[in-house]
Specification:
GO molecular function, one term: metal ion binding
Low-confidence stretches: none
InterPro entries: NAD-cap_RNA_hydrolase_NudC (IPR050241), NADH_PPase-like_N (IPR015375), NudC-like_C (IPR049734), NUDIX_hydrolase-like_dom_sf (IPR015797), NUDIX_hydrolase_CS (IPR020084), NUDIX_hydrolase_dom (IPR000086), Znr_NADH_PPase (IPR015376)
CATH topology of the largest domain: Nucleoside Triphosphate Pyrophosphohydrolase
Protein name: NAD(+) diphosphatase
Number of helices: 5
CATH superfamily of the largest domain: Nucleoside Triphosphate Pyrophosphohydrolase
Number of domains: 3
Strand content: 25-35%
Catalytic activity: a 5'-end NAD(+)-phospho-ribonucleoside in mRNA + H2O = a 5'-end phospho-adenosine-phospho-ribonucleoside in mRNA + beta-nicotinamide D-ribonucleotide + 2 H(+)
Oligomer: single chain
GO cellular component, one term: cytosol
Radius of gyration: 21 Å
Distance between the termini: 37 Å
CATH class of the largest domain: Alpha Beta
Structural class: alpha+beta
Length: about 250
């Protein structure tokens, strides 16, 4: 099973979601030994990236990994892991301390510098997500950085020295000017864009009026019972599950 990435795109068969075989990899100039294992104990699952100028072999196409998640089904998590392992290998070819070419440790996912001993493991970036509730209403926001963004829960990366709870209070105040309390854990999901761990909560409104952080949030509104909801995230994402689990009575999606 070969996961071949071009940027954020995955190579799949034009007629479906079948992954490329050895002959398709060879047409891209990829030899089996050049691919990175996705699991150390299973050499049959491998991954790598190709340059942005690479063309798909005949019968195949590069498609957005994000767009494929709903089609990949049980293989979605594996594709996400492959992307993160691939990105780690791509971005740690040289030591960040002395610029010496890195070498794989072999017994674990670790790139080690043979000159200075610096070790680099696959990066995981924790990010909080929170759906704010006010009585029978929920707060949905549209992020400013994505032109086609759906309305979703608030989210942001945890900063150095913060707990998840600290990050929730800070991000909600920064992005929409609201205070929250009664934080409750909902669930988590590995999110490979590029190496996040999304940790989702609900929280109760504790005060304030919506005040947007313009460079982060384009729109934020309360949606209550009977309201027509805007487009919300896909069911395969933790955001989609979080919102759907807390829909107001009679809300229309």
């Amino acid at each position: 099973m070969n996961f071949i990435f071009r940027g954020n795109e995955l190579l799949v068969h034009e007629a479906g979601i079948a992954l490329p075989d050895a002959s398709a990899c060879a047409l891209l100039g990829l030899q089996p030994g050049a691919l990175q294992q996705v699991w150390l104990d299973d050499p049959s699952i491998r991954t790598t990236h190709v340059p942005a100028t690479s063309e798909a072999p005949p019968g195949y196409a590069f498609r957005s990994l994000r767009g494929l998640l709903s089609e990949l089904g049980e293989h979605a998590a594996l594709a996400g892991r492959a992307f993160q392992i691939c990105e780690w290998a791509r971005t740690h070819r040289y030591c960040g301390v002395c610029a010496t070419p890195m070498q794989p440790a072999g017994h674990e996912f670790c790139m080690r510098c043979p000159a200075c001993g610096m070790s680099a493991y696959p990066r995981i970036s924790p990010a909080m997500m929170v759906l704010v509730r006010k009585g029978d209403s929920i707060l949905l926001a549209r992020h400013a950085t994505y032109a086609t963004a759906r309305h979703t829960a608030l989210a942001g990366f945890v900063e150095p020295g913060e707990s998840i709870e600290d990050a929730i209070h800070r991000e909600v105040m920064e992005e929409v000017g609201l205070a929250v309390d009664n934080l409750r854990y909902f669930g988590s999901q590995s999110w490979p864009f590029p190496h996040s761990l999304m940790i989702a909560f609900t929280a109760e409104y504790a005060g304030g009026e919506i005040r947007l952080q313009a460079d982060e949030i384009a729109e934020a509104n309360w949606y209550g019972p009977g309201d027509a909801l805007p487009q919300i995230p896909m069911r395969e994402s933790i955001a989609g599950r979080l919102v759907r689990a807390n829909l107001p009575a009679g809300a229309c999606t």
